[in-house]
Design a protein that fits this description.
Low-confidence stretches of chain A: none
CATH topology of the largest domain in chain A: MetI-like fold
CATH architecture of the largest domain in chain A: Orthogonal Bundle
Mean pLDDT of chain A: 88
Oligomer: heterodimer
Structural class of chain A: mainly alpha
CATH superfamily of the largest domain in chain A: MetI-like
Strand content of chain A: 5-15%
Structural class of chain B: alpha/beta
Mean pLDDT of chain B: 84
Radius of gyration of chain A: 32 Å
Distance between the termini of chain A: 51 Å
Largest sheet of chain B: 7 strands, mixed
CATH topology of one domain in chain B: Rossmann fold
Strand order of the largest sheet of chain A: 2-1-3
CATH architecture of one domain in chain B: 3-Layer(aba) Sandwich
Largest sheet of chain A: 3 strands, antiparallel
Shape of chain B: globular
Largest interface: A-B, 27 and 34 residues
Shape of chain A: elongated
Number of strands of chain B: 11
Radius of gyration of chain B: 19 Å
Number of domains of chain A: 2
CATH class of one domain in chain B: Alpha Beta
Strand content of chain B: 15-25%
CATH superfamily of one domain in chain B: P-loop containing nucleotide triphosphate hydrolases
CATH class of the largest domain in chain A: Mainly Alpha
Strand order of the largest sheet of chain B: 1-11-10-4-9-8-7
Helix content of chain A: 55-70%
Number of helices of chain A: 16
């Protein structure tokens, strides 16, 4: 033993030095933690900032209100939809602006390009409802075309070389004159939330995708949560321990790590090709996402069941509660917050999942708004994917807007789930 | 591990005798005056956990309307023996009980006996107070509810009140029956758990070191309560405290290394132990 050489003074000195190192280490560790959080928050803000910066312009749009003279010679009384209102309006606008068209009507074509096709449908609808309007001048309101909208939003300017923009100098001049005469109004883009998808950006909305996603998640929640919780309860509380249970456990853990596109393939083969469920429907989408969510829910439920204090189980069993009563009266209610957390995470994950949707036909152009679980529908992530790939520039801001809608959807869903979880929370 | 939390009671890991082999001698039974008719009769009860023997051929008669203390050092099998009497060992995977245990002459391990019904007859109080994370009322009402003993709300209320009164807790909680049972102090929680156990009118109450987590004042209250409950129930208490065994029990059984060594009237055991090991233990020479 060398203890004899260590005097109390040396001991005290060593302790002090050690203490100093310890505090320094702790300080460094805290700093790393702060840095990590700082980087994470920074990236998050960057991401959100970029999306908001790109997407905020999609939330307002411009509408033009043009007086249309319902020329009896041009408007088809019996079948107003067949009337070429676009050309009619374009010619009238040209005349109002004092522009003389050439033989090929190229000016009229350019003028038509400033209005959305909604102008035609709105006009036809007015005549259909009231044929007596023929011969009168009727103000018709319709969104401006996507290019015109971008010009009004300042994203296309005269300074851009003419061959790099889709609007000619003349079109820009007309837009300026229409705006000056008060025909053009800027307003909240409610169409973004009330319309389904469209090939024309100014008429495209997210409602179809939002409803599709909601229906899909309903299916997912109703399939995955009861099934997952039930499986976890059985495995954790009832199943005999042994090789088979271990094998199942390992496989569930592996399934949680399987790439989602594989689940898409499985869904395609199982639900569409074999069970002949309707392609691209919320039913199939929800079932595929449920398959994907199951392992996560099972794992989360099992670990929260494991965390329930054993004393509670013993208390219930010693009171003469059966195993099932113990589980449903005590264990499961106490595990509920953890179960809900698992369910929230997997639902949020399912909401944003795109890859499996690719394979079951959800990434196709579906303009309608679904009313049932069997209709083809889009979903928010697939809509984002489609819009991102669209060539029209106006879809760019709408892509960002759709991402914001997806995030908002997720926040609302999670808030509701957390509210529910709070109500289940109990202390022991 | 399944039910990993339902680990074997204390000392089971080292439960198998590790020291020199103990010769299986029959326990010393003090001749005692009549305490009460025999309620529980154990005959050659052995318990194995995953093949390891934790209890060796215990035979013991436990009288009714009496407090019987089981004492002995950690790992001696006293908790294991206690748990054979309400078949709580059934809930531990890998546990096996052999031998015969009779309550009122009926074999409780018989196929016809449902452990759920048995546990309604044999209540249990644990070392750590374990009220349910529910209200005080719900805690006490739980047993009558699951066993369908109270048919109306008023009946249930009177059962709850009577049980809390008998557990000596009524005065303290009467005005907050609907606040959580987990909000009570440790001693109150333990009395709540006792109230919960007696709400189903059991015949036997098993107590596994009920005071080891409590302070002396709370302990005194529980001991007082045990003394009162003796008049109605057959009580078996496992305790590490010699003083407690001496205070609350009329009969004492000393366990060592999974065997019952000596059993008899408490007074006899403490004043006149006939086994060397008993003497060593109660005088604090080991354990």
């Amino acid at each position: 033993m060398t203890d004899a050489t260590v005097t109390p003074a040396i001991r005290a000195e060593r302790l002090r030095a050690g203490l100093k190192r310890r505090y320094a280490r702790e300080g460094r560790f805290r700093l790393y933690g702060l840095l990590a959080i700082g980087v994470a928050v920074g990236f998050l803000l960057l991401l959100l900032g970029r999306i908001i910066e790109q997407g905020h312009t999609a939330f307002y749009t411009h509408t033009v209100t043009v007086p249309v003279y319902m020329d009896p010679a041009r408007v088809d009384r019996a079948y107003p939809q067949g009337t070429n209102f676009e050309l009619l309006v374009a010619e009238q606008q040209l005349a109002r602006l004092g522009v003389v068209d050439d033989a090929q009507s190229s000016k009229a074509t350019e003028m038509r390009g400033l209005f959305s096709s909604e102008l035609k449908f709105a006009s036809a609808a007015r005549i259909q409802n009231n044929p007596n309007l023929i011969g009168q001048t009727v103000p018709i309101a319709a969104p401006v075309s996507d290019d015109a909208d971008l010009y009004f939003k300042g994203e296309v300017s005269r300074a851009t070389p003419a061959d790099q923009r889709r609007l000619s100098d003349e079109q820009i001049a007309w837009l300026d004159r229409m705006k000056a005469s008060g025909l053009v109004t800027a307003h909240f883009n409610s169409g973004l939330f009330t319309r389904g998808d469209s090939t024309e950006p100014e008429l495209a909305g997210v409602l179809g995708a939002v409803v599709g996603s909601a229906l899909m998640l309903l299916v997912t929640a109703f399939v995955a949560i009861p099934l997952g919780v039930g499986a976890a309860l059985y495995l954790e509380e009832f199943a005999p321990r042994g090789r088979i249970t271990d094998l199942i456990e390992v496989n569930i853990n592996n399934l949680a790590a399987v790439p989602s596109i594989i689940y898409g393939l499985l869904g395609l083969a199982l639900f569409i090709n074999w069970m002949h469920l309707p392609r691209a429907s919320p039913l199939v989408g929800g079932l595929v996402l449920a398959l994907m969510a199951l392992p996560t829910i099972i794992i989360a439920t099992r670990s929260s069941l494991k965390a329930v204090p054993p004393s509670i189980r013993e208390a219930a069993l010693a009171m003469g509660a059966s195993k099932t009563q113990t589980v449903f009266h005590h264990t499961l209610p106490l595990a509920m917050p953890g179960v809900m957390t698992g369910a929230i995470i997997s639902m949020a994950h399912a909401l944003g999942e795109t890859a499996p949707l690719l394979l079951i036909g959800m990434v196709s152009f579906i303009p309608g708004i679904p009313h049932s679980f069997g209709e083809p529908t889009g979903a928010l992530p697939s809509l984002i994917y489609i819009w991102e790939n669209a060539s029209e520039r106006a879809f760019h801001e709408r892509t960002a807007a759709a991402i914001l809608v997806l995030l908002a959807f997720m926040i609302v869903m999670n808030a509701a789930a957390i509210f529910l979880r709070r109500r289940f929370e109990r202390r022991w | 591990m399944k039910f990993n939390i339902f680990r074997a009671p204390d000392g089971v890991e080292g439960g198998a005798p590790a020291g020199p082999p103990v010769i299986a001698a029959p326990p010393v039974v003090h001749s005692s005056g009549p305490v009460g008719p025999t309620k529980i009769a154990a005959r050659d009860v052995s318990v194995f956990y995953n093949g390891k023997q934790a209890l060796y051929d215990v035979s013991l008669d436990i009288p009714d309307k009496t407090v019987t203390a089981l004492i002995g050092p950690s790992g001696c099998g006293k908790s294991t023996f206690l748990r054979t009497m309400n078949r709580m060992n059934d809930t531990i995977p890998g546990a096996k009980v052999i031998g015969r245990i009779e309550i009122d002459g009926e074999d409780i391990n018989a196929k016809a006996v449902d452990p759920v019904l048995l546990r309604a007859r044999v209540g249990m109080v644990f070392q750590k107070p374990n009220p349910f994370p529910k209200t005080i009322f719900e805690n006490v009402a739980y047993g009558p509810r699951i066993h369908g003993l109270a048919t109306s709300k008023s009946e249930l209320e009177s059962v709850v009140e009577a049980s809390l009164k008998r557990a000596g807790l009524w005065e303290e909680v009467a005005d907050r029956l609907h606040s959580p049972g987990t909000g009570l102090s440790g001693g109150q929680q333990q009395r709540l758990v006792i109230a919960r156990a007696i709400a189903v009118e059991p015949e036997v109450i098993l107590m596994d070191e009920p005071c080891s987590a409590l302070d002396p004042i709370a302990t005194a209250k529980i001991e007082e309560l045990i003394d009162e409950l003796r008049e109605r129930y057959c009580i078996v208490i496992v305790t590490h405290s010699m003083a407690q065994a001496a205070r609350v029990s009329q009969r004492t059984s000393f366990f060592h290394l999974g065997r019952l060594i000596e059993t008899g009237d408490t007074e006899d055991i403490f004043t006149n132990p006939r086994e060397r090991r008993t003497l060593d233990y109660i005088t604090g020479r080991f354990g």
